[in-house]
From TrEMBL:
Keywords on record: Antiport, Ion transport, Membrane, Transmembrane, Transmembrane helix, Transport
Biological process per Gene Ontology, one example term: proton transmembrane transport
Family listed: Belongs to the monovalent cation:proton antiporter 2 (CPA2) transporter (TC 2.A.37) family.
SUPFAM superfamilies: Adenine nucleotide alpha hydrolases-like (SSF52402)
Membrane topology label: Multi-pass membrane protein
Domain of life: Bacteria
GO MF terms, alphabetically ordered: antiporter activity
Protein name, per record: Sodium:proton antiporter
Entries under Gene3D superfamilies matching the protein: 1.20.1530.20
GO cellular component: membrane
Compartmental location: Membrane
């Protein structure tokens, strides 16, 4: 035993060494990195070498880490995925929670815990953490039905765990009678209602503010997190309930590929969550674990209730939905690990004196065992499923490179945000290519190049916040459009994302001479975006599909990208079909991966489409699948739609030009209209 370290600088230094070294050591012995700080807390804490005390500083930082864990769980929940597979997910979630809960509750009663304490033990083993999910992701099994069912069931177990924790916390505070249940129901209903009404509304206004930088956005999210936790206490709930609800309320406004989400994850995972894990490890007393037969039996019984309860849930679910043996083991491997919610509930229960030191020891041992078994089963049986899992292929093996020409400093972040979404949709590993073209003037070229480097520096800094690599390009040329076209060729660009102010430079042009010429002289994807408010404010993507557009070579590719954008934004999608063969278009869209839950409407006339778009709510993002003049699907009204939307509405909108096969381009001479009669749609 040693004397406690009291110097703050030394305490932080020791903690940082722990956070750096222990995850690396755990990887060497094939254990999850999360185990490292916990074991360090056991060894260096008051029940070990006594180097670090579990004082107010550790408790403060650990509490913040706890709130971050639950908050991020709410942020990352795939709400739409759960709704889509709600029947399977609901069945599995209920079995996976209540099966272990009954066993855990029985263990608590057998060991003479109170009803509240027994329920807490049951809810602890009933929840689970998708600690093994990254393994399934690396194996390419995220679309596998067993994985989808498990991820959806996680929403059920998380919500039930939070609900039980709220009830248990209330039970521990006083007499459990009619008045308690009425008060809990009323206060919870009011609190939840206020969270889901006020926070989304306030978030819309805050994110629309001009000049809001990344630090201000992050600080706003922190205000939402901690004020929600604070208000939960006034409602008679635990702060982690408020953190979870805060995450859910912001779920649709912070997309996973954005810089803001990366800042949240970085802050949590680099600093506060490790402090929480360290503080949990400090609670464990190894000597007490082996001090009595009762303590050992409690550990064995709690671990038994977890393993048996989760195994029964996985077995029944996979038999009910006719999953294979390896799929059943994969489900079990994903749901055995205990970490975030388990640690959170354990700490709360210990603070409320519902469980004792022996129980904390038993739960931490259970966590360590589960974090070894779960990843092992996931990797072993996930690899066995690889041969049976269809591998998605793309039409082109070219590296997906996205060029983002920039001219206005205020449009840098909106264009980069769309670039993040498209890059993730294409699963590209290439950097983004922000481009600034400087006109070649003898007197001003040098000054303009300096300004260009400042603008590109902003793009680099913003992309770094989202951990997206960039390759900034500065080009000097007499003709901006020709310089962009030359860059497309030199850098093997496959997609261009351009911003548009909403005002064309000439009446006969759609977007202005530069953009129009680049569209006309290239065959790759081109997205033109007019954005009046942040794209993460989107509640629904409205996709306009002109007649004959399904016959375009790049149609399936364009729909694939839009579906992935919908998935990342966690928004709804509506397809406005103009083609006379409505059912064929609908079937073609539904056959393209990923599978969403789309809505469809049929508007066969351009006049109806324009009127419909102008009446849409402001939070809808309009995306028109367009066509280059003279190619299949082109219509004069396509050229007029952006101008009309810009003049008569405040909607964000994107005009998406799919790629054209150079060899199959039927325009003949540029911009020569051709007949679409006899066009053939290849359904493969």
């Amino acid at each position: 035993m040693f004397e406690n370290i009291t110097e703050p600088v030394i305490i932080v230094a020791v903690a940082m060494i722990i956070f750096l070294a222990t995850p690396l050591l755990m990887k060497k012995i094939n254990l999850p990195g999360i185990v490292g700080p916990i074991l360090a807390g056991v060894v260096l804490g008051p029940n070990g070498l006594n180097l670090l005390a579990r004082d107010s500083t550790i408790e403060l930082l650990g509490t913040v880490g706890l709130l971050f864990i639950i908050f991020i769980a709410g942020l990352e929940l795939d709400i739409d995925g759960f709704l889509k597979y709600r029947h399977r997910s609901l069945v599995f979630g209920l079995l996976s929670f209540f099966g272990p809960l009954i066993l855990g509750f029985t263990v608590g009663i057998l060991f003479q815990f109170s009803v509240a304490g027994s329920l807490l033990i049951g809810s602890i083993v009933g929840s689970h953490t998708l600690l093994s999910y990254p393994i399934a992701s690396k194996l390419g099994l995220t679309k596998q039905k067993a994985v989808i069912t498990t991820v959806g069931g996680t929403l059920v177990t998380d919500v039930l765990a939070m609900l039980f924790l709220a009830i248990i916390s209330g039970m521990s505070a006083g007499d459990v009678g009619v008045q308690f249940w009425v008060r809990l129901l009323v206060s919870t209903t009011i609190y939840v209602g206020l969270v889901f009404i006020i926070i989304p509304s306030l978030t819309k206004h805050v994110f629309r503010l001009n000049g809001l930088d990344g630090a201000s956005e992050f600080n706003y999210v922190m205000v939402v997190l901690f004020v929600s936790g604070w208000m939960a206490m006034y409602a008679g709930l635990e702060p982690i309930i408020g953190a979870f609800l805060a995450g859910l309320s912001l779920n649709r406004y912070i997309f996973s590929q954005g810089a803001l989400m990366n800042r949240i994850n970085f802050t949590a995972n680099a600093l506060f969550i490790p402090f929480f894990l360290l503080s949990v490890g400090m609670l464990m007393n190894v000597a007490a674990l082996f001090s009595s037969v009762r303590a050992l039996l409690l550990t064995l019984f709690i671990t038994f209730s977890l393993l048996v309860g989760k195994s029964i849930a996985a077995y029944l679910t996979t038999r009910l939905f006719h999953y294979s043996k390896d799929e059943a083991w994969l489900v079990l491997g994903l749901t055995i690990p205990q970490a975030a919610a388990t640690l959170a509930a354990t700490l709360v229960g210990f603070d409320l004196e519902l469980i004792n030191q022996n129980t904390v020891n038993a739960i931490i041992i259970m966590i360590l065992i589960s974090t070894i078994i779960g990843p092992f089963l996931t990797e072993k049986h996930g690899r066995r499923l690889l041969n049976d899992t269809p591998v998605e292929t793309t039409a082109s093996k070219r590296a997906e490179r996205i060029l983002i020409p920039m001219s206005n400093p205020t449009s840098v972040e909106p264009l980069m945000d769309l670039g993040f979404l498209v890059r993730a949709s294409l699963k590209s590993t290439e950097p983004l290519y922000p481009l600034k073209v400087v006109k070649k003037h003898a007197k001003q070229a040098e000054h303009d190049v300096i300004d260009a480097e400042k603008m590109l520096g902003h793009a680099i800094f913003y992309a770094a916040g989202a951990e997206v690599p960039v390759r900034p390009l500065t080009r000097v040329g007499l003709n901006v459009g020709k310089t962009i076209e030359r860059t497309i060729t030199e850098e093997s660009i496959t997609t261009v994302i351009s911003g548009w102010s909403g005002t064309p430079t000439q009446s006969e042009k759609m977007f202005g001479t530069i953009i129009d010429n680049v569209i006309d002289h290239t065959y790759i994807r081109h997205l033109i975006v007019k954005e009046d408010e942040p794209i993460q404010m989107t509640k629904r993507l409205v996709v306009i599909l002109p007649k004959q557009v399904v016959y375009k070579p790049g149609f399936s590719d364009a729909i694939h990208i839009t579906k992935n954008i919908v998935k990342q934004l966690s928004c709804k999608v509506l397809y406005v079909v103009m083609d006379d063969d409505f059912e064929k278009t609908k079937q073609a869209i539904e056959a393209i991966k990923p599978v969403n839950n789309p809505s469809f409407t049929h508007l066969p006339d351009w006049f109806l489409v324009e009127r419909y778009c102008l009446k849409l709510p402001s939070h809808d993002l309009i995306l028109a699948i367009s066509a280059r003049k003279g190619t299949i699907g082109w219509h004069p009204s396509l050229d007029e739609l952006p101008r009309k939307l810009s003049l008569h509405s405040t909607h964000n909108f994107i005009v998406f030009y799919p790629y054209e096969n150079y060899e199959l381009d039927v325009r003949g001479q540029r911009q020569t209209p051709v007949s679409v009669i006899g066009a053939h749609y290849d359904e493969s």
